[in-house]
Amino acid sequence: xxxxxxxxxxxxxxxxxxxxxxxxxxxxxxxxxxxxxxxxxxxxxxxxxxxxxxxxxxxxxxxxxxxxxxxxxxxxxxxxxxxxxxxxxxxxxxxxxxxxxxxxxxxxxxxxxxxxxxxxxxxxxxxxxxxxxxxxxxxxxxxxxxxxxxxxxxxxxxxxxxxxxxxxxxxxxxxxxxxxxxxxxxxxxxxxxxxxxxxxxxxxxxxxxxxxxxxxxxxxxxxxxxxxxxxxxxxxxxxxxxxxxxxxxxxxxxxxxxxxxxxxxxxxxxxxxxxxxxxxxxxxxxxxxxxxxxxxxxx
Length: 299
Hints:
By secondary structure, the chain is of the alpha+beta class. Helices cover 17% and strands 26% of the residues. The strands form three sheets. Strands 3, 4, 5, 6, 7, 8, 9 and 10 form an eight-stranded antiparallel beta sheet that branches.
């Protein structure tokens, strides 16, 4: 077998859940209408040449004893990050993040990110889809990479304030979403291989259309042998920035072969279809043959 297996995979949209979206989302009302100057129908999943108004930016000094503390975890977390929009909500046009060349994020990859979406509904209200789940995953990642955890209340307040401040960039109902990208990374300088002395919590955003052009429909994946995206005992269960760059070259190869994405196999046994696709969250196998898989994606 070569490195690439000619395997067609079809992705189909999952049935609509019977559970109301309000059980999974924060609902906001009375915010700005969509900016009429933006051509919403032309948006893809990118920055789209649109610069939003505000970002959230908070830098905290990590106490020397932080990673040795075991007790009163909630107390030590709540005192580090701010939920004050007057200090953390900043104009994007006048805010830039400067880093020392020895910053831990640049040298050792101590970084996490999340992806949160805010949607406008037909009645004009805005919903933020499951932000608490993103907060919990960011917490797990921070514990894994030894960064102070952003408390749930602080995370939700920051997300809400960024949505509020950038509401005019949320597309009309059915035409996309405001994609929010929370970042948590070691921003302090240090030559030694150890956790950073400073962490930065940042949230920026961009209006986006569908991830796949033309909407969610059948896509073609190519199964890859000889390359792994995640392995047992590694960092595949957290959203670490370093998880995402290694597949770039493989994705380039499979796209040149006419496929939409790479299908990564189990890291220990390449003959097992342990389904792992770089940008698809989760899916269920419905059918398997020697040539094809039928997959239902749950967003």
